[in-house]
Amino acid sequence: MNKRFSxxxxxxxxxxxxxxxxxxxxxxxxxxxxxxxFHAACGGLPAATRAKxxxxxxxxxxxxxxxxxxxxxxxxxxxxGLEGPDLALARFARADWYGELAARLRGAASAARAAIRxxxxxxxxxxxxxxxxxxxxxxxxxxxxxxxxxLGRNGLVLLxxxxxxxxxxxxxAASPPLGxxxxxxLLLLPFDPADAGGADEPPPREDLVxxxxxxxxxxxxxxxxxxxxxxxxxxRREACLQHWTAREGEPxxxxxxxxxxxxxxxxxxxxxxxxxxxxxxxxxxxGRLGPSLPAGLFLDRDDDEVRHKLRGSALGLGxxxxxxxxxxxxxxxxxxxxxxxxxxxxxxPRI
Length: 351
Ligand code: SF4
Ligand code: SF4
Description:
By secondary structure, this protein is of the alpha+beta class. It contains 14 helices and nine strands. Helices cover about 35% and strands about 10% of the residues. A four-stranded antiparallel β-sheet has the order 1-2-7-4, with helices on both faces. The protein has a three-stranded mixed β-sheet with strand order 8-3-9. A hairpin with a 5-residue loop joins strand 5 (about 150) and strand 6 (about 155-160). The model is unreliable at about 1-5, about 160-175 and about 345-350 (pLDDT under 50). The structure holds iron/sulfur cluster (2 copies). One iron/sulfur cluster binds near residues 211, 217, 274 and 275. The site of one iron/sulfur cluster has 11 residues, from helix 8 and helix 10.
């Protein structure tokens, strides 16, 4: 029993207030993670990472998803007039979907706290309701623990593809399967939803991880241009285009041969998945970049201007390398200037 609160009835009321707030928050799916499972998932993290994200203080969590669909169709106004060629963005990066999900979780936390207070109960301090997306916490394992889906061989959570029903997924998790086209986030809680709900936890489900629900499908493995996905879902990060697109350095030659006009991300294994579907209602204007940006942004503008334009977007994160983006822009320009022919010879100068 959670000792921080005074009664079972109070815990249940807090739980219900939170569930109602989550149902109104515009999330694609969500589910609860008990304190025991949350700390089991976070236990292997470095102490500094746990401290940074407040993991040690959390009593439980909500795992949530937000489908991104095709994303915004138009680039920002400032992209007009910049010279090409156009550099492609993967769907998850066409807007700041992570920021949008975090904002929706923040709204849910605020509404839940207000509802709890209106019942004469103490919701706990606002800092105990941390909303996170694309954080250093293990969002995929926690999404699986919350019953949001299963882990595909492509390393993405296949949302709605069959999580454990005993894990108390939220009502939205019962909507049509979302597949892998969504971002994940967390809302940390000052109470344990397992205490509040009173349900025993089911044992972990092995079939939810490492392609256990993919059946005989191997589409993502066959679609990956760099063989980064192994036969049983083993993922080779150093062979993945997405991994390299936002990092500086010289990628392996085999990757350069299939780089094409990528700027950030790679959708090949996403598009190949038979469970991928575009979420028609997905929309946000937060950090809008659209499906591509002109190479001229990176080749004809200085660092300060580029960083200013990308601030608040999926390309504005501190760990991302402008030099990595410039490398992609140089590759695309070289390709364009070389014209049609043998791409492996003409497009990929050593950089
Ligand atoms: S993102 Fe692209 S390169 Fe990486 S595993 Fe998927 S298909 Fe392969
Ligand atoms: S493409 Fe097939 S094997 Fe890969 S994640 Fe999707 S269902 Fe699983």
